[in-house]
Design brief:
six-stranded mixed sheet; alpha/beta; 10 strands; 37% helix; 266 residues; 9 helices; 24% strand; four-stranded antiparallel sheet; globular
Length: 266
């Protein structure tokens, strides 16, 4: 479903300084499976997720999502307003429609109700009829146990409630792949449980999902596969049993031991 080959991404930090965040990413996420990205802060997990969604454009490498493929070449810069520029933008937008992103800080439209937030994408982007979009939005609100808040505004909701609405909004676009960027990092433990419950339901339905999280116990529970990122590269990849076992590189086992000190071996 998702495949990255030799993907690199750097950011300019001034006229003479460049920070390379992704060095040489090789990665795949199978259809109908949950793949979890773990690793230390600054390892490139969120940047990798944003490259899959094309909120960040890779400097070079190959990206495949749901059968669509884009290759990025080093120093490739189509001239603004040229035919090649517009062709590239259409290609990026087409690829992006196959993914749904759930951010750590919700990113809901504050001036729209819960129901309107979920309907926005299907109506404006996918040109669905408002009646159809509304029916789907109501069904999704029931799925995330937020039906009673359909006419509420985001500012009146708890963080956990806002994140459940954000998940429903992502589902409303009927994506092939769901991307979660640390979906519970801004929540206290009680609200975190609300959101994790919804994600567990999506896992059981065999959705294709890629999740960035620091909650290793949750990762071990829901993942079909786990990728460990360090220094902008995938340094370990396997099933939870493999990654949380003793056979991993020392860098991986040290990280897991530090994060889950008492019981990390399956």
């Amino acid at each position: 479903m998702v495949y990255l080959k030799a993907v690199k991404k750097s950011f300019k930090q001034g006229p003479h300084k460049v920070l390379q965040v992704l060095g040489n990413i090789n990665f795949h996420a199978p259809r109908g499976k949950t793949t979890v990205l773990i690793g230390p802060s600054g390892a490139g997990k969120s940047t990798m997720l944003r490259c899959i969604n094309l909120l960040e454009i890779p400097d070079e490498g190959l990206l495949q999502v749901a059968g669509k493929e884009i290759r990025f070449e080093k120093n490739e810069t189509p001239a603004p307003l040229s035919k090649s520029y517009f062709a590239r933008q259409r290609e990026i937008l087409d690829m992006r429609r196959h993914t749904g992103m759930v951010f750590q800080n919700f990113q809901l439209f504050p001036h729209k109700t819960v129901l309107e937030n979920i309907m926005e994408g299907p109506v404006l982007v996918k040109k669905e009829e408002p009646k159809e979009a509304q029916a789907l939005a109501l069904a999704l609100l029931e799925k995330v146990e937020m039906s009673d808040k359909k006419d509420s505004y985001p500012s009146t909701l708890s963080g956990g409630q806002q994140q459940r609405v954000a998940i429903a909004r992502a589902l409303g676009m009927k994506p092939d792949v769901l991307l979660f960027d640390e979906p519970t990092s801004a929540l206290d433990p009680e609200l975190e449980r609300e959101v994790l419950k919804v994600i567990r339901t999506l896992v059981e339905e065999n959705n294709t999902m890629i999740i960035v999280t620091h909650n290793l116990l949750f990762a071990r529970e829901v993942a079909d596969f786990i990728a460990f990122l360090d220094g902008g590269e995938v340094v370990a990849y396997g099933t939870p049993r493999e990654v949380f076992g003793k056979a991993m590189p020392k860098r991986v086992s040290d990280f897991i031991t530090a994060m889950v000190p008492e019981d990390y071996v399956i």
